[in-house]
Design a protein that fits this description.
12 helices; alpha/beta; 40% helix; four-stranded antiparallel β-sheet
Length: 351
Amino acid sequence: MFELNEKLRGLAAYQPVEARGCVRLDANESFLPLPQAVWEAFCQALSGLEYNRYPDPAAKELCGAFAQYYGIDPQTVVAGNGSDELISVIFQGFLMKGQAFATLDPDFSMYAQAGALAEARHVSIGKRDFQISPEEVVEACRREKVRLLIFSNPCNPTSLALDREAVRHILKGVEALVVLDEAYMDFSDQSLLEEASQYSNLIILRTCSKALGMAAARLGFAVANPKLAGALRAAKAPYNVNAMSQALGLAALRRGDLLDQARAQVLASRDQLLAGLRALAQARPGRFRVLPCAANFAALVMPQAQRAQELLLSRGVAVRFTGGLLRVTCGQPEENRRFLQEFEKIWEELP
């Protein structure tokens, strides 16, 4: 009888919240549909695609549009089937079996899974009150001979952002490849995207699933110096981004004005959500704490976080319990209000 190997036997599939028919504030997606002008441009592009042919393996036009929108060199950009694919490619390509990789925990759970599949040694560097200490990170990476350090900034699930100078300190202090996941950086102002090509040990990840509102398209990008970018192009699958996703990405990135307007709407929703939560926290002192926010979600520190998530789901509102925190994505104004109303009601059922 065939038996699974050890690394697969211990692996669990990613589990999203099962929440059909609920208010969905659990996945950190954008609550906004695609702008009509983007949708029309995409539909027009679809009629011109050659569906019997493979797509451009380098996604040159798409990478060029991304580079133009963010003001960087297109030669430093590599497209992926979501940043999840790029994470897997980086772990498989830049780590040898048994080498050490480090995460700053709590952080995105898929980093550890990618490391396990690469048969690498996991070094978990803890945070103090969810904050990163650059000095401790550098020390741990040197001590453990870490080959690859990966962390999200702003962080999922804490919503906290590390400032540029602190990230630079880590980059200059470690000998490891640093994978800086900036999936939520469109909501903050501490990006190193324009500096990526200046470092020999930096890969920055970006996604179209958050601020750009294209989670269904599975589009992600890696930005690095030409040597690292070339290695990524060689390691990834040749036709990893399908023609339809490339067309949608082009239609959106060529309308940067509309993307900027959408981001402003998301930020307004985030501010509405945070204001409501802070008012509730003030009314119930000591029951929960709202962490400072640099993303499109709120992170709540509370001892009954998992029970709160279960109670909210039973009331038709889906949020996420992860990393010991209750994570709430901002939504439409009425969705934010619904969450705040139900969140206030469940306190009678919490111990």
